[in-house]
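Box 3.1 A note on notation
Throughout this textbook, protein chains are presented in two layers. The first layer is the amino acid sequence; the second is a token string describing backbone geometry. Keep the layers aligned when reading.
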Amino acid sequence: MSVDATESRERITDFLKLKGVGVLATVDGSGQPYAATVYVTTDEPLNLYFVTKRDTQKCRNLQANPRAAIAIYDATTQTTVQAEGTVVEVTDARQQEWVFKDIWSRAAQTSPGGVPPITQLIAGGYVVFRLSAPSLRMATFKQVNNGEPADIFEVVHTQPSQ
């Protein structure tokens, strides 16, 4: 896709602002894969944030191995954003508050009762995580007029996390 880096960054940012649910992939201490659906939000450097509870499988997996991937998909436009990177726990109270507010706002639009499904789990206290990826990849699966597949990938290199 012949799009400049600034335009790609804007397209990915806009997509992430609109689509707040993704699939998080982790591995446990023995290398067994695990995937879970999470609400996702992002900041200006394009770090991805999600909330879980301390005693969930994904939290235990991230404590054993902080490498993870997230895929966010929109079926209507056949677009996906993918990120792989290192996950760290967010301990700053102001940042945690921002993530909680944004995630709960996203959940209000899609969840019955307006709260994320995680509120129904008895699995310890809440924990906020940040996935910092060196780049994000957006793919829009469309066909060009002559029937040949288009170049579907746009890659945006992110800024270092703060």
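The chain has a mean pLDDT of 82. The radius of gyration is 16 Å.
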